[in-house]
Amino acid sequence: MFSFSSIKDYQSLLLNGKTTCTEVVSSYLQNIQANKHLNAFLEVYEDEAMQQASLLDKKRETGDKIGKLHGVVVGLKDVIAYKNHKLSASSKILENFQSVYTATVTERLLHEDAIIIGRQNCDEFAMGSSNENSAFGNVLNAADNSRVPGGSSGGSAVSVQANLCMISLGSDTGGSVRQPADFCGIVGLKPSYGRISRYGLIAYASSFDQIGIFSKTIDDAELVLDVISGPDDFDSTTITGSFKNNHHEASNKEYTIGYFPSTLEHKSLDVEIAVAQKNFINQLSNYNLKIKPIDFDLLEYIVPAYYILTTAEASSNLSRYDGIKFGRSSPSTGLTEKIESTRSKYFGKEVKRRIMMGTFVLSEGYYDAYVTQAQKIRNVLIQKTKSIFSEVDAIISPVSPTTAFKFNQKNIDPVEMFLADIFTVFANLTGIPAIAIPLFKHSNGMPFGVQLMASHSNELILLQLSKKLIEIKNSLNN
Ligand code: GLN
Asked: Is 152 a catalytic residue?
C-alpha cells in the first residue's frame, strides 16, 4: 500500500519505477471511499483523475519532460473554479452551478502535471470556523470524529490529514487555512495578500481573501507555492516577482523572532497551549535565535475591525447571487419577489447574518461609526506591522485559542465563534504571510502548533524559519 511522506520522495518512487500514478490515484480513491463518513469531499473526480494518472504514466515512459507537480494528487476547496466542474461554495444557492472558466491556480497546477481529485466541503461562502455552516453537512476531524475540523476550509484540511490527497488548496480570509490546519495537525500556509492570483476564487472579502496551501511538510508547501504564485493579468492585485527573489541573508544569520506577551496572557487562550508556547519560545534562544517581546495593545480591536470590514465587503460581493445571473432561482415572479425569495430560501443562516451585518455597517448614518473606524484600525495595524518588522524577522503566536472543539459547542453563540479568530485575522488585516506549523499534542489528544508571521512578501523567511522550528522541536524531543 502506498504511503505518502513528501512530494520529493513520491516523485523519486515514480521515476525509479517503484510505483505509478495510476496505482497511487487508485489507492487515494479507495481511501476516500473508506473515509466517506468524514464528508471531506463534495465530489470526487474518479474517472478524470484515473485518466490523468495514466496520461502521466505514459509521459514518463516516453521520457517527456515532467512537470514540477508531476503526479501530485490535489484537492480543491469548493470556492476555486475548474471549468465544466461544479462550484458551489458549499451553498444551496450555487448547487449544481458549473464553472465556466478555470481559476489561475487550477490552471497552474494542471500545467505542472498535478492530478485534481475532487472538490472539498467548506463553510458556506467560506464563512465560519468549524465547517458547521456548510449546506452539505459537517466535516469530521479524522483525529476525533466528535470534533470539528476547523473552518472554513475544513474538508481541505481533513483530506490532507486523513491521506485523501497529498495537497489541498483552500482560501484564507481570516484564518481559514491556518486554523483548520492547526486543528488537524498539518501545515497551513497563507501567503502575502497578492502573492497568489484570486482569479477564479469565489469572493468573500476581496481585500482579505488569499488562496492558501495545506500540506504535510514545509517543503511541499514551498513547492506548491512556487507553482501557483506570481503575477497574473487577470488579478491586478497580484504582486510582481517571485517569493524566491525576496531576500537575503546567510542561513547562519541570527534571526530575531518577536512575540506578543499580550497574546500569551490572553484570557481566551487554553492553559496548556499557553504553557507549550511559552516553554517553546524560551528554548529558541538556545538555537541561534533571538527572542524579543513586543508591546501590542491592539488585540481587542482586531476581531471587531475584521468582522466589520469583511461583512461589509461580503454584503457587496454576495449581491450578485440574485437568482438571475447564475445559480439557483426561486420560481416567484416579479423582480423584487424573485430576488427576495431566492436569497431567503437558498442562503444559509450565517451567510444571511453576515450580509445583514455588512449592509448595516455600510448604511448611511452608521458608515462612519463602523466602517471608517475599522478602516482606521486597519491602517494603524499596518503601520504597527511595519515598525514591528523593522525590529524582528518573524512573529510567533498561537494559531487558535483552543484545540479542535466538539460539534455544537460554539455555533450557538456567533460572537464566541468570531472571537476565536483573534490570532489569525491580524495577518489578513495587514496582508502579511503567515503559516500554521503542527508541533504539539494536547492532553485531550488533539494536535496544535504555532503560527509564524513575516513581513509582506517575505514567504521565504517564513518557510526557512518554519523548518528551523520543526528541527528545534524534533531535537527537543530527542
Ligand atoms: N473564521 C473566519 C470567518 O468566519 C475566517 C474565514 C475565512 O478565512 N474564510 O470569517
From this structure: yes
